[in-house]
Design goal:
By secondary structure, the chain is of the alpha/beta class. The protein is built from 13 helices and 14 strands. The strands form three sheets. It has a ten-stranded mixed beta sheet with strand order 5-4-6-7-1-8-14-13-9-10, with helices on both faces. Strands 2-3 form a two-stranded antiparallel ribbon. A two-stranded antiparallel sheet has the order 11-12. Strand 9, helix 11 and strand 10 form a beta-alpha-beta unit. Helix 3 packs across helix 6 and helix 7 crosses helix 13. It is globular and about 60 Å long.
Length: 411
């Protein structure tokens, strides 16, 4: 079986539209959460979101390309171009052996809303001709494969907020077992519009806090919901033999993956933590390490009452007493919750934490809930060597997905 390494990264995010800007913001404890500007949200009861800012699709796409894409696809293509460029991989020489596993939990919600409004206002004959290809969730992966010429499997794995992590995990397995030589993997989302914000507000899942600095406060006793984010996070994965043959720069190794289902509730995790806890155990076991070797966990940490206490219980379930010694942080105070794209951006956080020996902060955390009693790295990140990191993603429907990354120190 092949070993699998990360040789490229790409992102469009609320805190930077490339990897360097993104990571500089993380290290500086900066947040991209601010008042909503993309539509009039006054009637939703929600005031803030983590919007992508100053995004210019023309930097990576021709006008005729991006005009035929919803924002979720534009973000994914732009991030994938950055990832492939960083990797230096000669894709044209091996196109049939390079896949694209890039997920969106919802798809083209911006264009869905626009299309439905036009239908109601002017009738079904006025629905835009490209309504369907603009909105279906697989088109991020499809547009990436067409843009870059990757002819391997092009897939959209939809598991709600675990989507991107499942895509990275499945890409890892395809390379590990020799089905692919390389793969672009991750996720994207663009749902900051009236139906997106209004829908999650109706579920009472979003924070109604007007203060951008404290609206997303994972593990805090006063948390009241998550803050919507948008963007894309893409990893370029390839076999170690491929990376070494071309003398590529390696940023981290993927060594473990766990995935399962709670089979319990539509939105709530299993009370004893066994669902996500077993997924973490799977990833640790596949990595061939002990729980005590995990140095950092990038938690799902949504800032909702149910998730944060439930995930804390799951971490204790998986790590036992070591749970109190490992650094745990949620990145959603930096860039909000990207739904199906969250795991892609958060996997990038793990890779950079390993590569740069830096654990990012849980922004917004001021006073931890009594049920949340671990080391959550509040307010400011810390310099710390990380040898093994877990990235947790938990999705509505009981989907759990966990990746284990290892610090690269040579074969």
């Amino acid at each position: 079986m092949e070993r699998v390494v990360v040789t490229g990264l790409g992102t469009i995010s609320p805190i930077g539209n490339n990897i360097d800007e993104f990571w500089a913001s993380m290290r500086a404890n900066q947040s991209g959460i601010a008042p909503i500007t993309k539509f009039d949200a006054s009637s939703t009861g929600v005031h803030v979101a983590a919007e992508v800012k100053n995004f210019d699709p023309s930097l990576t796409m021709e006008r005729k390309e991006y005009q035929r894409m919803d924002f979720f696809s534009q973000y994914a293509v732009a991030a994938s171009v950055e990832a492939i460029n960083m990797s230096g991989y000669p894709l044209a020489d091996n196109d049939a052996r390079v896949g694209v596993l890039v997920s969106s939990g919802i798809g083209g919600l911006i264009e869905i809303e626009k299309g439905i409004r036009k239908m109601i206002d002017k009738g079904p004959k006025r629905i835009p001709p490209l309504f369907v290809p603009l909105t279906i969730g697989n088109m991020a992966a499809g547009n990436i494969s067409m843009k870059l010429g990757a002819k391997g499997p092009s897939l959209d794995i939809v598991t709600a907020c675990a989507s991107a992590t499942n895509s990275i995990g499945e890409a890892f397995l395809k390379i590990k077992f020799g089905l692919l030589d390389a793969c672009l993997a991750g996720g994207c989302e663009a749902t900051i519009n009236e139906i997106g914000i209004g829908g999650f507000a109706a579920l009472t899942a979003l924070s109604t806090n007007e203060d951008a600095a404290t609206a997303s406060r994972p593990f805090d006793k006063d948390r009241d919901g998550f803050v919507m984010g948008e963007g894309a996070g893409i990893l370029f994965l390839e076999s170690l033999s491929s990376a070494q043959a071309r003398n590529a720069t390696i940023y981290a190794e993927v060594v473990g993956y766990g995935a399962n289902s709670d089979a319990y509730h539509m939105t709530a995790p299993t009370p004893d933590g066994s669902g996500a806890g077993e997924a973490m155990k799977q990833a640790i076991e596949m990595a061939g390490i002990q729980a005590e070797q995990v140095d950092y966990i990038n938690a799902h940490g949504t800032s909702t009452p149910t998730n944060d206490s439930g995930e804390t219980t799951a971490i204790k379930y998986a790590l036992g007493n070591h749970a109190y010694k490992v650094a745990v942080s949620s990145s959603k105070g930096h860039f909000g919750h990207l739904l199906g794209g969250a795991g892609g951006v958060e996997a990038i956080v793990c890779v950079k934490a390993l590569h740069d020996s830096f654990v990012p902060a849980t922004l917004g955390l001021q006073q931890a809930d009594e049920a949340c009693d671990l080391d959550y790295v509040p307010q400011a990140g810390r310099e710390q060597q990380v040898n093994y990191a877990l990235s947790n993603s938990l999705g509505f429907g009981g989907h759990n997905a966990v990746l284990c990354f290892k610090r690269w120190e040579g074969a």
